[in-house]
Design goal:
By secondary structure, the chain is α+β, with helices and mostly antiparallel strands. The chain contains three helices and five strands. It has a three-stranded antiparallel β-sheet, covered by helices on one side. Strands 3-4 form a two-stranded antiparallel ribbon.
Amino acid sequence: MTQTAESLSIIDNELSKRHIDLDPAGYFIIYLDREAGLICAKHFTNVIDDRGLAVDPDTGKVIPAKAKVERNHSTIFTGRTAKELCVKLFEETQPCPVTMLDHAAYLGREFVRAELALISGADYIQD
């Protein structure tokens, strides 16, 4: 069966709706610095409460998934390619700021999407 970009997009959009457990080591906001030619990933720490929600470790308040939140990142990771960024994050940083394999796989996918957007000039919006 031949896949089209549209049929593959439908699969990915459906998969994006699934439940995922949050990484207790924190989360990342990924964006492009086009002027510097970099993929950037700001790491934010969090704590997972007994309901499975991410909360700010300083305030104890729930971190909303879809609202703008003013928090300070703990670290910023940058790379010119997805691979370079993954090496910095997963191989060179100790302790690794990612503790769950599904979170690592997600970040790898997002870094590749960001790299493609950087190369093509397309917009990048984190999934």
